[in-house]
# Entry
Amino acid sequence: EKYGLGRTALPEEIAAWDVDVQPDGTGLPVGSGNAFDGEEIFAEHCAICHGDFAEGIDNWPKLAGGADTLDHEDPLKTVGSYWPYLSTTWDYVNRSMPFGNAQSLSADEVYAIVAYILYSNDLIDDEFELSNETFLDVQMPNAGGFIIDDREATEYAHWRGEPCMENCKDSVEVTMRATVLNVTPDQEHGDAAMAEEAKASPAPAPEAAPEPEPEVAALDAELVAKGEKVFKKCKSCHQVGDNAKHKTGPILNGIYGAAIGGAEGFKYSKTMAGFGGTWDDANLAGFLAKPKKFMKGTKMSFNGLKKEGDIAAMIEYLKSVSQ
Amino acid sequence: TPDPLITEVQDWASGLGDGVDATPYGLPISHEGDVIRRNVEWLTADTISSINFTPIHALDGTITPQGCAFERHHSGAIELKKEDYRLMINGLVDNPLVFTYADLERFPRQNHIYFCECAANTGMEWAGAQLNGAQFTHGMIHNMEYSGVTLRTLLEEAGLDAAGDLKDKWVYVEGADASSNGRSIPMEKALDDVLVAFKANGEALRKEHGYPVRLVVPGWEGNMWIKWLRRIEVMDGPVESREETSKYTDTLEDGTSRKWTWVMDAKSVVTSPSPQAPIKHGKGPLVITGMAWSGHGRITRVDVSKDGGKTWETARLGSTQGDNKALTRFYLDTTWDGEEMLLQSRAMDETGYVQPTKAQLREVRGLNSIYHNNCIQTWHVKANGEAENVEVS
# Structure
């Protein structure tokens, strides 16, 4: 039965709202972008929550990493490790991101951001031109990782029938208590216990750090200013200044001349903690150029500063926050 | 000694109360100030994309008042006027249509009571007893009476001849908010019992529940109940959106993940006594109560154990027969002798399904699952009447 209610949707109206993209690419607009361009767009629009390298800040989603962790304890589910279809990423970035400014990106910007996320997951190189035409060329690692709900066979079939009413177990022991964790919000004051408290493994006592050597060299103001700009790349993980806190990376106040792996209250990788020495010019230059090569096993996910000028500027800037 | 509350004339028995214009739209009396939704700050990065919890420990009966029914937003609760509301139906339909809110009110409508449970309800308890209160372990649920038009009515108004064989067709539904929260629903369900609702418990939907129009998908995970519903597209396959791939899927021990786990299986929980609702009256008559529900249909029986699952007693259901895909209240009217109890409840639904233990679930799904945890819950009630969330062997 028809009621004759509503009116015909106009083609322009359908075009404005019908923007979803299906796994086979149906719905993708014409356009393209690569990771090289995407890095800058990502830094501007996405990095504040997702980190410069898509590694995630605080509780915001991590978009990169986690390869081959799905069958491990606490798997890391990211676009690279978990999402089965690339269309999902394009669709979501296009429709719902950036958080608080959704539907503000052009199609080319979305292609570039998606390319950067793929690049951060080592799924494409930074020259790959992602477009509506190359879209299906990208292989998503977990594409075959999903099965359709099988509870009927694996669960329901076993859990139907008359349940036990008496003598169902020999003994009952309490094996775990919620109050031990103490993560339940305080209801009188309405504020929540912090997750960190719950997971609290006691922070290792910082090893006695050698006194930083006094540095009284005059700073090159121009170089400091340039370094401050370069430091933007580090800001999502490292804080400096009066109210600085340890984030993904430690506070960098006073880092120049300080003991390597010596910031109090920060949980370093084993490598960093046992590296020895101080952050002098040579160590900083080596670490900033290729962190993972200089210090195999460091947690710092940054790939390094490519330009020598940037490294010199960064060291000068770090000196400035160390005085 | 005589009770002065009886022997002395009280202010309220002598003076005057509020006039009828004191509260044009009522709020709970101040003495019930603790019956509120609560947030668990550490769960999410931000309250804009987050969830809070229904104070189920303090409620009775089955209907959840809208004002304390849990909220879950992905980009915040938006303010959308009825006058600005538009609902589009497009895709594989004979005639793509746009409806206004006023149009929706002119279709024949129905009333149904359904529970809405977030797939993540009890998800924090997978790895072990974690949050100390029924509100936090089981409060991502509410149960309301919805008034609305069936989705079938609207789809038929647009005409489904263009879709051909409906068996392999889907509808994609999305909201007007920034998150869109799009989800794909198989046509069979869309034509079965899905409602496009604009009233809950007799009044307009609250902003936080999708005012002016939301989708009601009975028995299926709450994420599919699209709020601020703006578009319904008939499609030849699922979109595989973020909400149906990266979220709301269930990763098993071997690393493969189940998708399309839409139905919420039978589940129950004792709401009182519980950690936020301790026994304060000492020995003697005790009402143990809780709620049960199943996405597969009606609850037929609930058993309660006081000894951690060694022995069970069948509880009394609050109504003679549980409602279809709606909360059922249960009571065990008993006598407490002051001994410690390990309280559990176990629901059965009309398909014969029996609510499993956490061990049974873990055996099938492993430890990395998050969503769809419908395990039996245990409260350790101590001699002083206080209760704690525990896990038992």
User: Anything to note?
Assistant: The CA atoms of residues 89 and 229 of chain B lie 11 Å apart. The longest helix of chain B spans residues 151-158. Chain B touches chain A through 97 residues (CB under 8 Å).
